[in-house]
Input
Amino acid sequence: ALATNLVEPNASADELGSAARLQFSVANSSYDQGARDVAAAAAAGGAKNYSLAKIDAGESAAELWMQWKDMTAKAKSGDTPDAAETNWQAAGSVAKKLAAIDAANVQFLRANWLSSRRLVEAMRTSEDTAAAEAEASVAVDTARQVIKLRPAQQAFNSDLSISLTAKGDLLFRNEKLADAKSSYEEALGLAQAAVKATPNDRSQGDLYTTLIKVGSVNAKSGDAAAARVNFKTA
Output
């Protein structure tokens, strides 16, 4: 509601851009609650403000965003003849178009991250481990971009931790132990910070899991002493 106060005839590009990003956040929330019409209206309002702010393809932002949400719903449903990998690849293609429209929009960037994350899971299930490893790196890079926009938001650090762990799992499986260790250890640092910031069951559980993974790669690398320390801490 406050964002609408920014949308005046003489509003600056920055104000219009801010209002647009907020409207897409409203659209995202509404869609996830099943209010597709409300989501579409909010997305359309955001697209209008993109256009006023001189950002290209404003109208297509709304169309693409709704298309991406529909694709993700299809991919998650599981009751489609298309493979999950195919659906997430399609969703990722649309998400990249959204990010190209506004790289400062957290919703659009996170759409890229989620598409990559789910694509990694689908590829891993289909035993396409080489492609999954490459896509895992994309997910990690995208999560870092989101954090740059919202460095204080713990949820986005969690996104990065999830992707680092998934990447570590693939590297570990592919016998790339040094790289797996590096990925796990960065995830461990994030897990420790999360426990310090919010010491609850979830953060403690994530820390436990990450310690086990770091210990496992230590053990397989022949560093029994380090493995013992991490397992004991877990």
User: Anything to note?
Assistant: The CA atoms of residues 85 and 122 lie 5 Å apart.
